[in-house]
Design a protein that fits this description.
Blueprint (H helix, E strand, L loop, with lengths): L1 E7 L17 E2 L2 E2 H10 L9 E8 L4 H12 L5 E6 L4 H9 L6 E8 L7 H12 L4 E7 L4 E4 L10 E5 L5 E3 L3 E4 H14 L10 H7 L5 E4 L10 H15 L1
Parallel strand pairs: 1-4, 1-6, 4-5, 7-12
Antiparallel strand pairs: 2-3, 6-11, 7-10, 7-11, 8-9
C-alpha cells in the first residue's frame, strides 16, 4: 500500500492581485506550486514511507502548462505525477483528483499549493498519525487571538458581540490533511450527493468527514505552513525564505 498527495492548485487567487493563478505565482523565482510539491515529496516518516503519487488540480486551461512545469522540475524524483482539471469548488477539485488515484493507495494527503512552505516534517507527522489508527488527521495551531462570535450588523455596519469563544480548545487548521482513502472517498461521495456550490461546499476535506459523523484528529501544526492569500502574505514568505538562506 502507498501514500498519495493531492495538491490543490486550481484557485484563481484574486485576492493576491496577481495576473497568474495563485499556484503559478513566483516565490523567490519558483512557483508556489513547486515549493509545495517539493515539501510534500521531501517527507519521510520514521518507517521510511514517502509520497509515491502526486495528483495536482489546476485550471482547465493550464493543465498542459502545469504538467510540463512539473515534469521539468521533478523529472529526477521517483514519483508518479498526474495533473487534472479542477472543478468549480475546492471540494469538486479534490473529488476529481481522488477519482484518478491508483488502486494501491491507502493513505491520501490533501494539501493547498497556497501553503508552499509547509515543511516535510509536518507531512511526515500527518502520515504517521494516519498510520497510527487515526483515519482523518489535520495539523493545527492554537488560536492566540481573542475570538468573538457576532450577530448580523446594524444599519451602521457595526456587529454586536454575542459571546467570547473560549480559545483554549480552538485550533487554526492547516494542510496537508491526511486520510484513510476509504474514508475520504466516502466523505466526498456523501458531499457530492448533497450537492454544493461555492457557498455551501466544504472549506476543507476534514469538514466532509465531520459531516459523516466520523472523528477528526489534530496533530501539531507549523507556523511555516501559513497560507498565502494576499500580497502581504507573499512578501512575508519571501522574508522567511531569505532568513532560512542566510
Amino acid at each position: 500500500m502507498s501514500v498519495a498527495a493531492i495538491l490543490t492548485a486550481a484557485g484563481s487567487g484574486t485576492r493576491l492581485g496577481h495576473p497568474l493563478p495563485k499556484a503559478l505565482v513566483p516565490l523567490r523565482g519558483e512557483r508556489l506550486l513547486l515549493h509545495a510539491a517539493r515539501g510534500l515529496l521531501a517527507a519521510r516518516t520514521r518507517a521510511g514511507e514517502r509520497v509515491e503519487v502526486l495528483v495536482v488540480t489546476t485550471p482547465a486551461d493550464r493543465v498542459d502548462e502545469v504538467a510540463a512545469l512539473l515534469a521539468g522540475a521533478l523529472g529526477d524524483v521517483d514519483v508518479r505525477v498526474e495533473v487534472v482539471p479542477g472543478g468549480a469548488t475546492r471540494q469538486a477539485s479534490v473529488a476529481a483528483a481522488v477519482a484518478v488515484l491508483p488502486d494501491d493507495v491507502d493513505v491520501v494527503l490533501v494539501h493547498d499549493a497556497a501553503r508552499p512552505l509547509a515543511p516535510a516534517a509536518l507531512t511526515a507527522r500527518v502520515v504517521e498519525a494516519v498510520r497510527a489508527g487515526h483515519p482523518a488527521v489535520v495539523p493545527g495551531l492554537p488560536v492566540v487571538d481573542t475570538v468573538k462570535r457576532v450577530a448580523a450588523p446594524d444599519a451602521s455596519g457595526a456587529e454586536p458581540v454575542r459571546e467570547t469563544v473560549p480559545r483554549a480548545d480552538l485550533r487554526a487548521v492547516q494542510t496537508p490533511q491526511g486520510f484513510d482513502r476509504a474514508l475520504l472517498v466516502a466523505a466526498h461521495a456523501a458531499g457530492a450527493a448533497e450537492g454544493a456550490d461555492e457557498r455551501t461546499a466544504a472549506s476543507d476535506d476534514a469538514g466532509l468527514v465531520e459531516r459523516l459523523g466520523r472523528p477528526v484528529w489534530v496533530v501539531r501544526g507549523d507556523d511555516r505552513a501559513a497560507k498565502i492569500t494576499t500580497a502581504r502574505d507573499l512578501a512575508l514568505a519571501e522574508l522567511l525564505l531569505a532568513e532560512e538562506d542566510a
